[in-house]
Amino acid sequence: MTRGSPVPETVTLHVPFRIVKRGGRKEMQLPEEAAQRRHTDGTLVKALARAFRWKRMLDSGEYASISEMAERENISFTYMARLMRLPLLSPELVEAIMDGRQPACITLANLMAPFPLDWEEQRRRSLSGGEFSDDTATASDHAQGVKGSAGHIRDLQ
User: Fold this and answer.
1) CATH code for 19-28+38-150?
2) Domains of the chain: which residue ranges?
3) Whole-model pTM above 0.70?
4) In whole angstroms, how far apart are CA 47 and each of 44, 89, 107?
């Protein structure tokens, strides 16, 4: 077998990507048009599962308050209270997180900060790829959202 031209010693391959922090680690992010495999963020999925479980426990009356539950579960009240916002995410975003299709701006760190309660606004912000958290939301806005969702709010005020 003969070759018409010599094999070059060096081959250069250009792959467009950028490095992003996601869940406390760095990941390569390929351009939108590149086929990407799904990657479920285990930390975020675990946080969602915990938040929905805690919400269910409050709703069932198993615990009377978030502070009681935090004490019994041996978890910091402030951490638990911040995670208790997660059930306020739109079902569309929760499903995307579970499937590993969430936008890069949806990280646990970003979700620990106040975010918009309106599902349409959540959708708009997640699709824009910009900042997801809501600097204009106050703790009382989130308390009202949690109250409407879980009915147990006295610890967040």
Assistant:
1) 1.10.10
2) 19-28+38-150
3) no
4) 5, 12, 11
Instruction: Provide the residue type at 151 as one letter.
Output: G
Q: 39-86: per-residue pLDDT in tens?
A: 788 999 999 999 999 999 999 999 999 999 999 999 999 999 999 999
**pLDDT 10s digits, 116-141:** 999 999 989 888 766 677 654 444 44
Cα 22 to chain centroid distance, Å, stands at: 10
Count of CB atoms situated within 10 Å of the CB of 140: 12
Write out the DSSP string of the chain.
---SSPPPS--------EEEEETTEEEEE--TTS-------HHHHHHHHHHHHHHHHHHHTSSSSHHHHHHHHT--HHHHHHHTTGGGS-HHHHHHHHHT---TT--HHHHHS---SSHHHHHHHHHHTS--S-TT--HHHHHHHHHHHHS--TTT-
* Residue owning tokens 């992003």: 20
Instruction: Tell me which residue has tokens 């997660």.
Output: 86
